[in-house]
Give the backbone structure.
Amino acid sequence: MRIVSLLPAATEIIGLLGQLDCLVGVSHECDFPPEVNAKPRVTYCPIHDEGLSSAEIDRWVRETLASQGTLYTLDEPLLRELEPEIILTQKLCDVCAVGYGSVQAFAATLARTPQVLNLEPSSLSDIFENIRFVAKVLDVPDRAEIAINALIERIEAVKARLANVVERPKCFLMEWIDPPFCSGHWGPELVELAGGRDPLGLNGKDSIRIPWESVLEAQPEVMVLACCGHSPQRTMEDLSSLRRNLGWDGLPAVQRGRVYIVDGNAYFNRPGPRIVDSLEILAEIIHPDLFARCFADRGVICLGSDASNS
């Protein structure tokens, strides 16, 4: 089968199933496993966010969606040349990939109409079902079960360590800094499994913009900055706007030095196999007494005393 993936998570699923040889094209954001970086790129995003603040990126996204309906461009001549039999995409979020309707409309114009498969998870179980779905289409269902069982074993290992935990600190998983966005979909579920509780997250629902006053009211004891599409280093560039918020220094998480920056792009915002890495990262952040040095660093930055303005 000739597969084109428009989603980094779908590309990772194909890699998990050992089917990278079938992958003939990927999106501009697909970067894992490393060998996919040699595949043809079939999408493009015109924004260059170097030097742009979180607020400026948010403004560009809103204005571009309102005026054009999509943030991305398909390389239609290249896609025609690649002749895909399957295109993996999603309806979940217009900010994350080319709009599903646009992909479907273009696919209908190809000489041989490919299957356009929608991956739209809202929970960990949905992510596992996506893996099964792709494996079934690629006729490798047994590989999915082996992979999923291995992921579930890691989840159960985290749960076993937390079995006797009584204290579950309030952990705010933040998906964007300016304006602030709470976590949605599988985010609050990850916090819960990691032994915390997200007072602002929307389990199984879209991440949404929230007023800063809601953060002040929630008084989180732990804050995890998992900015969508950003590496930890890129998130660091926006810290000044977060610190300028009224009441920042008074938040329990800031006073206790428990503000962390994680790789939202690679882990938390990508509903593929590495979502379990996200759980392990959170468990170590929320309960370092039980998980310290259990897992690889994975790019986590603890701001510690540097979290404060002072």
